[in-house]
Amino acid sequence: MPGPIDYSKLRILPDFDTAEWWAGTKARKYLVRQCKACGHKWFPPIFPACAKCASLDVAWFEASGKGKVYSYVVVVQPIVGAFIGAVPYVVAIIELDDCKEADGTVTRVAGVMLDEESEVAIGLPCEVVYEETNDPKIVMPRWKINGTAANAWRFTE
Ligand SMILES: [Zn+2]
What we know:
Layout: H1 19-26, E1 30-35, E2 41-42, E3 58-63, E4 66-75, E5 89-100, E6 106-112, E7 125-132, E8 139-145
Antiparallel strand pairs: 1-2, 1-3, 4-5, 4-7, 5-6, 7-8
The protein binds zinc ion.
The site of zinc ion has 8 residues, from loops.
C-alpha cells in the first residue's frame, strides 16, 4: 500500500456547492449530483446546472460506492506536500455501477486508490472506503480493488 496521505498538510474547506457532499462522506455516503428534471447524474458537484437539460433543479443521488476502473495514472511526483509520503500512488477514474443512464452516459469519478500500482488494472471492480483525516469534519473517500475481471488491462512500461 502506498504511504499515508499527510492530511495535516491539506486544508479542505467545503463551500456552498460541496458542503453537502462532504457531509455525505462523513456519513459514509458517496453522493453524486442528480438532475430532478431528467435524472442525469454527474460529478464533481460544483456545476450547479444539468449539462443535459440545463435545469437548476438538482438533488443528490446516493451511489452504492461500487464501480469499475475506467483508467488510472500512477503519480510519482507529488505536487502537494501532503502526498510526499504517499508516492507512488494511483489516481483512478472510476465508472459508478449504479450511475449508468439509458443513453449510455456513465458517471465517472476520480479517486485516490489504496492499492499499489501492481494491483490496479483497467476493468477491475472497486469500491469506496472512507478514511479519517486529522480534521473530524472531513472524511476522505478512497478506492480499493474488490474483485477480478477476465478482461482487466494494465499499463506496461
Ligand atoms: Zn437534466
